[in-house]
């Protein structure tokens, strides 16, 4: 037997005929490819079954097509694929009743085409495949030759659908030699017999094979039988027309995909055939608002009903990963590396399409049933806000249905809300100031003050809200957000008018000094302000900017200059409050005691008075009563 190389050193074939059978050699100028396939695909050995069963599906569907074109006159009969395990003989056999192959087709498709695919793969990846990258390579469809990841010997027994075809048997032992001979086979179709290698005997296990078949083949379009039962649903709902489905069908399918999950809120049926092919159903799960956890349930990606992966990271935008369901597209190039996927223009189009569909669906729900939408908003708000923040195109649509809720539990769109407060909450620089609370219990005293002045307060108490606020400030013109305790009432929305002060400038300076001495804390900055007499005598505020910086560094866990900075609090003494004036009329210990008491009251109003300070406060109060 000779091996031949062409000028480029590419693999070519040589063959010689001895009696009935043909022996041949597949030759490449590098080493034997099978040990390399084995090594590189190590982490993903199980995909051999996906590849071989997919081939069987393809062969079956091709026959159906031919029949529908009138090119196959015989009875098709049942097109069931069977997977059989023989633990004794150490074989796994995949049989189909598809188009089969003639001897020439085996030479062409198995020896040449499939082989060159495998060779190309090795050439491309042999130098790159180290460590984690082997996983990526696992996504490269090696097709038929992936059989050699688990088998030391592979037989193909096949008979073409063409009239009068001679069945043939191809055998290859994992070296580069193959043998091709005529055999008897009654039925049309192909049996692939894998003689499992000693190091892959884990696959000679019913549970393991069933597990792999269920993972990749659950929704294959042709029935697949293993161990006496059909493992798949050949017509899952995404392959049907929405008009033929009921709500219950969608819910049932959801339960089938994610048996332990709560009912979904609603769903979108995707169906597009131009400029790319995509079908699927995406479900909106109930998301716990405060838990920004990544859900265990993931979107599953299929290619013509073959499960590919649930790592859809580059195929759908980040924020859409919170959805559940199925996407099926033969146009997503699954058998290539991640970086290619990111750059692929089809993937980008698919991304854009899904984003648009999701936004349109949400808009439709909002327009057709606002009350129902508001009811669901606590569950889908996280998702909508995340989308609006991270995707410009989504924001363009979402701004019409992303809602904000005020402390009275009323929902507004962003524009509605801005209009709602504009008259009352525009400052001297013509900025509309939107007030919010992040914790309605802790900030109740401030919410109360703001509302008494006729201001409205938004509830922004979920994890995504700080980011949502930043995004809105960036996008909306002349609009700022301030937490209710960011400043004293007059300055919170500074209309340029301040209340008259009852105290003289001298008195104010004295008052400031008393508080500074009493508190004796350099990180606090004390100011005396003229606030309405019915406001608290002392209030503690932190400027919006400072607070955001501190929150951010707390969130990131990194101590930056703001995180490290002690205090940052302003202590505002209300010059117009009778008790503040009383401080001035006292001296010595009595004066300090009252100042301290007023400061502690301010802390108490914020729920920040704890430990020994709280105990001392209670004692002092009891004594004074
Ligand atoms: N069960 C089968 N019945 C008929 N023909 C088959 C069968 N299995 C493989 N073939 C033929 O062998 C060819 C090569 O198969 P292989 O799986 O390597 O590549 P592929 O299916 O074309 O692409 P992929 O890399 O996506 O699997 C197929 O295109 C097909 O023509």
Automatic annotation (TrEMBL):
UniProt-recorded Gene Ontology molecular function terms: ATP binding; ATP hydrolysis activity; ATP-dependent protein folding chaperone; unfolded protein binding
Give the keywords, sorted. ATP-binding, Chaperone, Cytoplasm, Nucleotide-binding, Stress response
Could you tell me which Pfam families the record lists for this protein?
Answer: HATPase_c_3, HSP90
Which gene does this sequence derive from?
htpG
Known Gene3D superfamilies for this protein? 3.30.230.80, 3.40.50.11260, Heat shock protein 90, C-terminal domain, Histidine kinase-like ATPase, C-terminal domain
* Family annotation (CDD domains): HATPase_Hsp90-like (cd16927)
Instruction: Cite the binding residues for ATP.
Output: 51, 55, 96, 101, 116-117, 190, 338
Annotated stretches, region: Disordered: 1-24
- What PROSITE patterns does the annotation carry? HSP90 (PS00298)
Question: Is Chaperone one of the keywords?
Answer: yes
Domain of life, per UniProt, equals: Bacteria
Positions with biased composition (Basic and acidic residues): 1-10
Name by which UniProt lists this protein: Chaperone protein HtpG
InterPro entries recorded = HATPase_C_sf, Heat_shock_protein_90_CS, HSP90_C, Hsp90_fam, Hsp90_N, Ribosomal_Su5_D2-typ_SF
Family label: Belongs to the heat shock protein 90 family.
């Amino acid at each position: 037997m000779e091996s031949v190389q062409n000028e480029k050193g590419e693999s070519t074939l040589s063959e010689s005929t001895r009696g009935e059978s043909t022996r041949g050699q597949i030759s490449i100028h590098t080493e034997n490819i099978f040990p390399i396939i084995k090594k590189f695909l190590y982490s993903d050995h199980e995909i051999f079954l996906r590849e071989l069963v997919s081939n069987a599906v393809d062969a079956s569907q091709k026959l159906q097509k031919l029949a529908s074109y009138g090119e196959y006159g015989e009875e098709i009969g049942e097109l069931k694929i069977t997977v059989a395990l023989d633990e004794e003989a150490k074989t796994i056999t995949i049989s189909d009743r598809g188009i089969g192959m003639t001897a020439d087709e085996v030479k062409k498709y198995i020896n040449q085409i499939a082989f060159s695919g495998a060779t190309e793969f090795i050439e491309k990846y042999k130098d790159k495949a180290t460590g984690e990258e082997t996983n990526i390579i696992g996504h490269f469809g090696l097709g038929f030759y992936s059989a050699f990841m688990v088998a030391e010997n592979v037989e193909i027994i096949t008979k073409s659908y063409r009239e009068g075809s001679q069945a043939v048997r191809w055998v290859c032992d994992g070296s580069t030699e193959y043998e091709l001979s005529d055999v008897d086979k009654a039925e049309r179709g192909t049996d692939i017999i894998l003689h499992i290698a000693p190091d892959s005997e884990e696959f000679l296990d019913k549970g393991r094979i069933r597990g792999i078949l269920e993972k990749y083949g659950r929704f294959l379009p042709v029935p697949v039988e293993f161990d006496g039962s059909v493992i798949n649903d050949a017509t899952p709902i995404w392959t049907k027309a929405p008009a033929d489905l009921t709500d219950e069908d969608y819910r049932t399918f959801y339960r089938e995909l994610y048996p332990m999950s709560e009912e979904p809120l609603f769903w979108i049926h995707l169906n597009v055939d131009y400029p790319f092919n995509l079908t699927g159903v995406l479900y909106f799960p109930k998301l716990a608002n405060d838990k920004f956890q990544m859900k265990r349930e993931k979107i599953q990606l299929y290619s013509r009903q073959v499960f590919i992966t649930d790592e859809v990271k580059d195929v759908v935008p980040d924020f859409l990963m919170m959805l559940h369901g199925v996407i099926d597209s033969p146009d997503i190039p699954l058998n290539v590396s991640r970086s290619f996927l990111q750059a692929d223009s089809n993937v980008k189009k698919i991304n854009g399409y899904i984003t648009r569909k999701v936004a349109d669906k949400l808009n439709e729900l909002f327009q057709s049933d606002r009350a129902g939408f508001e009811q669901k908003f606590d569950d889908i708000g996280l998702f909508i806000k995340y989308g609006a923040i991270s995707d410009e195109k989504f924001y363009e649509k979402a701004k019409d249905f992303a809602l904000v809720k005020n402390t009275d539990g009323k929902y507004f769109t962003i524009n509605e809300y801005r209009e709602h407060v504009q008259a009352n909450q525009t400052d001297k620089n013509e900025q509309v100031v939107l007030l919010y609370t992040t914790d309605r219990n802790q900030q109740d005293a401030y919410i109360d003050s703001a509302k008494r002045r006729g201001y409205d307060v938004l509830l922004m108490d979920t994890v995504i809200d700080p980011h949502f606020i930043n995004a809105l400030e960036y996008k909306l013109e002349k609009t700022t957000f301030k937490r209710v305790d960011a400043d004293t009432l007059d300055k919170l929305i500074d209309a340029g008018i301040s209340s008259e002060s009852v105290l003289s400038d001298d008195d104010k300076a004295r008052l400031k000094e008393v508080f500074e001495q009493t508190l004796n804390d350099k990180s606090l900055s004390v100011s005396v302000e003229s606030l309405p007499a019915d406001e608290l005598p002392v209030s503690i505020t932190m400027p919006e900017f400072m607070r955001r910086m501190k929150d951010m560094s707390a969130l990131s866990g990194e101590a930056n200059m703001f995180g490290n900075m002690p205090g940052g609090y302003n202590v505002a003494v209300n010059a117009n409050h009778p008790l503040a004036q009383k401080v001035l009329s006292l001296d010595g210990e009595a004066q300090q005691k009252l100042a301290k008491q007023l400061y502690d009251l301010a802390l108490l109003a914020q729920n920040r008075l704890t430990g020994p300070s709280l105990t001392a406060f209670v004692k002092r109060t009891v004594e004074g009563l």
